């Protein structure tokens, strides 16, 4: 329960012991990274194309949690349920088609429940942002028993990731107010990233065959 970490200073509710509060989130990220990297390893062991290229994860830094709570008017008492990305995992894929494969794999898993799905691939954001988002309820075992943690999983191609990383830095630089001319450039860069994904999909069989030959050569 978050309440045990809350404490009122000058009328403002603050979290008193961040380490203890964020501990289960760190644990969830560590466990999920191992599990998802394991999926990739299993595909490789069977000499199959892995729909997952690489996996990253992070616990949201404390200043970002506080910023977002203020920006979105989230009551700190409800931060565990209303801020769904305190724990975040990202899975990068080579091809757009891989994203659906990964989503299907995740839907079959028994170690968490998917509580929300947001398809920003077929419904891209106005900024040009594309990714598939899932929010899962993941149980971590802690000394006091089991604790359910919400984790946001973002699944995207390498090309979508390139665009999102650049756009995120610009957003940070301009505090969310990117000048109109740069915004326009970003939108056309998003179009270019979309076309790159399309082009790669057209020669997917060829690329995968080449990658299989390359990995067999490395094994020898
Ligand atoms: P910045 O500027 O914040 O992007 P390892 O244990 O070695 O596999 P490590 O070093 O712990 O990995 O980090 P990992 O898992 O490779 O990735 C951490 C970076 O990925 C962070 O960047 C995060 O920004 C980013 N990241 C990963 N997943 C997410 C996510 O779901 N949401 C968000 N917002 N970011 C994510 P840095 O290095 O902190 O720099
Ligand atoms: P971080 O840690 O800086 O990445 P909101 O969180 O309010 O934006 P919502 O509905 O809670 O919206 O969640 P949404 O939009 O499904 O996913 C939020 C996260 O998706 C963001 O986290 C980003 O990581 C990513 N995202 C969404 N829209 C964009 C976008 O236009 N550009 C980029 N680069 N990333 C986007 P945060 O909150 O920014 O945290």
Summarize the topology:
Blueprint: E1 6-9, E2 12-15, H1 18-45, E3 54-59, H2 62-71, H3 79-82, E4 87-93, H4 96-108, E5 113-119, E6 132-142, E7 145-157, H5 158-173, H6 180-202, H7 204-219
Helix pairs in contact: 5-6
One ligand 0O2 binds at residues 60, 64, 68, 72, 85, 118, 125, 127, 129, 133, 164, 167-168.
Protein name: GTP pyrophosphokinase family protein
Pfam family, one: RelA_SpoT
Pathway: Purine metabolism; ppGpp biosynthesis; ppGpp from GTP: step 1/2
CATH superfamily: Beta Polymerase, domain 2
| Structural classification | alpha+beta
Q: Tell me the CATH architecture.
A: 2-Layer Sandwich
Question: Can you give the mean pLDDT?
Answer: 92
**Number of H/I helices:** 7
Number of strands: 7
Shape: globular
CATH class: Alpha Beta
CATH topology: Beta Polymerase, domain 2
Bound molecules: ligand 0O2
Question: Describe it for me?
Answer:
Residues 57-178 form the RelA/SpoT domain. This is GTP pyrophosphokinase family protein. This protein has helices spanning 18-45, 62-71, 79-82, 96-108, 158-173, 180-202, 204-219; strands at residues 6-9, 12-15, 54-59, 87-93, 113-119, 132-142, 145-157. A 5-stranded mixed β-sheet has the order 3-4-7-6-5. Strands 1-2 form a two-stranded antiparallel sheet. It is an alpha+beta fold and 220 residues long. The chain contains 7 helices and 7 strands. It has a single domain (19-219), classed as Beta Polymerase, domain 2 (2-Layer Sandwich), CATH 3.30.460. The relative contact order is 0.12. One ligand 0O2 binds at residues 56-58, 88-90, 152, 154.
């Amino acid at each position: 329960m978050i309440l045990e970490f809350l404490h009122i200073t000058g009328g403002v509710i603050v979290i008193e012991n961040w380490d203890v509060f964020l501990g289960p989130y760190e644990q969830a990220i560590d466990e999920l990274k191992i599990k998802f990297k394991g999926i990739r390893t299993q595909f490789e062991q069977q000499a199959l194309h892995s729909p997952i290229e690489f996996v990253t994860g992070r616990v949201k830094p404390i200043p970002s949690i506080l910023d977002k709570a203020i920006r979105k008017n989230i009551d700190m008492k409800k931060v565990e349920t209303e801020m769904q990305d305190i724990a975040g995992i990202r899975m990068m894929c080579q091809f757009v088609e891989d994203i659906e494969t990964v989503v299907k794999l995740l839907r079959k898993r028994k170690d968490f429940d998917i509580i929300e799905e947001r398809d920003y691939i077929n419904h891209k954001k106005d900024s040009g942002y594309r990714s598939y988002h899932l929010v899962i309820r993941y149980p971590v075992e802690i000394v006091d028993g089991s604790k359910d943690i919400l984790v946001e999983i973002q699944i995207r191609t390498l090309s979508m990731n390139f665009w999102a990383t650049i756009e995120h830095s610009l957003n940070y630089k301009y505090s969310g107010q990117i000048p109109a001319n740069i915004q326009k450039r970003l939108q056309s860069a998003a179009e270019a990233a979309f076309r790159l994904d399309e082009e790669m999909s057209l020669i997917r069989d060829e690329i995968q065959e080449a990658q299989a030959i390359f990995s067999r050569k490395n094994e020898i």
